[in-house]
Design goal:
There is one protein chain. The protein has about 725 residues and is of the alpha+beta class. Among the domains are: about 45 residues; about 350 residues, DD-peptidase/beta-lactamase superfamily (Beta-lactamase, 3-Layer(aba) Sandwich), CATH 3.40.710.10. The chain has 26 helices and 25 strands. Helix 4 packs across helix 8, helix 14 runs antiparallel to helix 26 and helix 17 runs antiparallel to helix 24. It is elongated.
């Protein structure tokens, strides 16, 4: 009875509870402090070895005067190392981490989106357009193909990855996918206690502060400092500089052998791509010790990173800016002069390139429209930048990919040269003896018949009559050069065209340069011709007549055109054009410096002198096709206009070209300009004038009345 009464007394019951609870605590304390005290103390203080990567700043890109074009800024990255925690704990931590990123507007690595998307479920762009790529990726995820049927759909693939990455069913699809994205990075890039893994780049200060404040909730997570690319020139030199972006899978396979990590950026276009080996720095590393939560306890050894080299370009940014602005301005002028006959107001794109005739240095390389490289290094949540990138590659908007802003017309655009080819025909005729500097009169009766074709003089019904080489270049008489070319022969014309670098790559320090086509009888028998026209053909005399005036099968880049004109100017030296002036190490020493490099063309100086006199007449004599633009210009210029048919003249304007060098007597600079659908070659001369004014530090701007009106100059001028 007394025992029952004891338990009926609530106070006695409560006292007994506290006695038992106290006994448990005492046992635990004894266990911690006496039995296992030493082990737990050692565990809490145990230091774990860890190797942390020290990122290397990418080298800067500057113009010839040191004006920065591509530099670096400092930002924060979030790194993760493997610590002692359960899979469930790690999933919870990752979800909390991702929620902080999203709250603060930060982006984390989501390469999984390339392969699998949710809301709705879909395969990503990296594999959706290629069954081969899809099978390759699935094999990487499931080498034994045990889940092939399950992975046949996006929903099934999600279920497979959820199981593979051990993500509990308690998480919603959305939360599971957040965790999945991070764990996917751990899977494909490696996740150990010895090396760190970057999971978020360029995060906000808010995120850094919050993670530091709550560091106990995020074992194995730490903040690091890294540099990120910054472009300073907008669209002015986008094609030259290029941009960097993270590697895709194919690029990683290539760069992995060179020691790159998958989360690194590489140059994609322009100098960023070509000079990647110079610009990339060498990462260092820190050997450290961390506690069981992953927090740094001691730095043991540091091998510092080696910054990338500075690449100094030959580019003059003032000249580059003037070239870009002039193209844009003159495109508007040309469109405003539309007549619906020869000018359909469709001029929307163009290119200009200026080169030092004695060194091969590219002083300006303008391609319009252009793009701003900054958009490619903007944060993924920068909607304006992402929209711009989409526009850059929108082939529907730009009709064809080659019309898009990322297309560098100077090295990739192929254009019939029109009458800018006539100086070459002149050289071939002089060097083969068909004409001489002293005896070079050819009669233009108003027509020229060959192989059943009749070519007519476009200015006078009865022709120009007797013309010298000088007057023929001055007036750009088609009949003169058709006759000259026919007598010279296509084999001789193509021989001298090749010697002057036409129809072959220049070797410039940019990737993706096009070769072009130089008209020849071999070309009409080639596989290239067959792919283009579906057949091969014999060469005809009429073909020679047309090729002689820069039409039919001839197609060159503006870079080839400026190089060929520079070779006329400098006495027959075919330069290797280059954009990189020198490469400078972080300590100021020179790594590489480009010296003038050229091939001597076996052309007589008297031949060149005869051609130069004709080119001077183009800009200086009353009947010159560009005299209106160059009238009263204080420096003598040797030039040649060109209007090239595209085959669509009933509805579209012809392409317009202009080439020149100056001063005519002692040349320094050569220029080539192309305006797509520019209608008349003379329409492009004002762009060259603007570039020359900047180069020679001349005051004033091009007069509005210097722009030729449609109809003043006829076809192929």
């Amino acid at each position: 009875m007394k025992v029952k009464e004891f338990f009926k007394d609530r106070y006695n019951l409560l006292a007994m509870f506290f006695i038992l609870f106290g006994a448990i605590i005492i046992v635990q304390l004894v266990n911690l402090q006496i039995i296992n005290g030493k082990r737990y103390d050692e565990e809490s203080q145990r230091k774990l070895p860890n190797v942390r990567r020290v990122s290397a700043p990418r080298g800067n890109i500057v113009d010839r005067y040191g004006v920065p074009l591509a530099v670096n800024r400092v930002g924060y990255t979030i790194q993760i190392i493997k610590t002692k925690m359960s899979n469930a704990e790690r999933n919870e931590m990752i979800l909390k981490l991702v929620n902080i990123f999203e709250k603060n507007g930060d982006n984390y690595d989501k390469n999984l989106e390339k392969y699998l998307k949710i809301n709705p479920f879909a395969f990503g762009p990296a594999i959706s357009d290629s069954s081969k790529k899809m099978e390759s990726w699935k094999k990487d995820m499931d080498p034994n193909k045990k889940n092939a049927e399950l992975m046949s759909t996006p929903e099934g693939t999600f279920k497979f990855l959820r199981k593979k990455l051990e993500i509990d069913d308690k998480y919603s699809v959305e939360d599971a996918y957040k965790i999945m994205c991070i764990k996917y990075e751990m899977l494909i890039r490696g996740f150990t206690s010895l090396t760190s893994l970057s999971i978020a780049k360029d995060v906000s200060r808010e995120t850094v502060a919050e993670l530091e404040e709550r560091h106990q909730e995020f074992p194995g997570i730490y903040t690091d400092v890294e540099t990120f690319r910054k472009y300073t020139m907008g669209e002015t030199a986008g094609h030259v500089v290029g941009f960097v972006r993270p590697m895709d899978e194919e690029e990683y396979k290539k760069y992995k052998e060179e020691g790159y990590r998958q989360d690194e950026v590489v140059g994609k276009m322009g100098i960023e791509a070509f000079a990647e080996p110079y610009l990339r720095g060498k990462a260092g590393q820190k050997k450290v010790e961390v506690d069981i939560t992953g927090r740094l306890t001691e730095e043991l050894e540091t091998n510092p990173a080696i910054p990338g080299n500075t690449v100094k370009l030959t580019l003059d940014m003032n000249l580059q800016r003037v070239a870009m602005e002039s193209i844009e301005r003159n495109l508007e002028i040309i469109r405003s002069q539309a007549d619906g006959k020869k000018n359909f107001g469709d001029a929307k794109a163009g290119a200009a390139v200026a080169m030092d005739v004695n060194t091969g240095e590219i002083l300006a390389m303008a391609s319009y429209p252009s793009y701003d490289p900054s958009n490619f290094v903007a944060k993924p949540d920068d909607k304006e930048a992402q929209q711009k990138i989409e526009e850059y590659y929108n082939t529907e908007k730009y009709e064809l990919a080659k019309l898009a802003p990322t297309y560098n017309r100077v090295v990739k655009g192929l254009y019939a040269p029109g009458s800018t080819f006539k100086p070459l025909t002149s050289i071939a005729g002089l060097e083969t003896g068909v004409i001489t500097p002293q005896r070079n009169v050819i009669n233009d009766p108003g027509y020229f018949k060959v192989d059943g074709w009749e070519f007519k003089c476009l200015e006078f019904k009865h022709g120009h009559g007797d013309l010298t080489l000088k007057s023929a270049l001055e007036t750009s008489c088609n009949i003169y050069f058709e006759k000259l070319g026919y007598q010279t022969g296509i084999d001789n014309i193509s021989k001298w065209g090749s010697l002057f670098g036409l129809g072959r790559k220049t070797g410039i320090d940019l990737l993706g340069e096009e070769k072009g086509v130089l008209a020849s009888r071999e070309y009409k028998k080639s596989e290239q011709f067959k792919r283009m026209y579906g057949r091969t053909e014999d060469w005809w005399g009429a073909d020679t007549a047309q090729a002689s005036i820069g039409q039919i099968y001839n197609s060159f880049t503006p870079l080839q055109l400026v190089n060929y004109i520079a070779a006329i100017a400098n006495g027959g030296k075919l330069m290797r054009p280059h954009l990189i002036k020198k490469v400078i190490k972080y300590d100021g020493s020179t790594v590489m410096e480009n010296e003038p490099e050229y091939t001597k063309i076996p052309v007589k100086q008297e031949t060149l002198n005869a051609v130069i006199e004709g080119m001077k007449a183009v800009t200086m004599q009353e009947n010159g096709t560009a005299v209106s633009t160059f009238r009263n210009f204080p420096i003598n210029v040797a030039g040649k206009t060109g209007t090239a048919e595209t085959g669509y003249e009933k509805t579209k304007s012809s392409n317009a070209l202009f080439v020149c060098f100056a001063p005519a007597e002692k040349p320094q600079i050569a220029i080539a300009v192309v305006v797509e659908n520019g209608a008349w070659g003379a329409n492009t001369a004002p762009i060259a004038v603007d570039i020359l004014k900047e180069y020679f530090n001349l005051s004033g701007s091009a007069r509005s009345d210097d722009k030729l009106k449609s109809g003043q100059i006829e076809f192929t001028r």
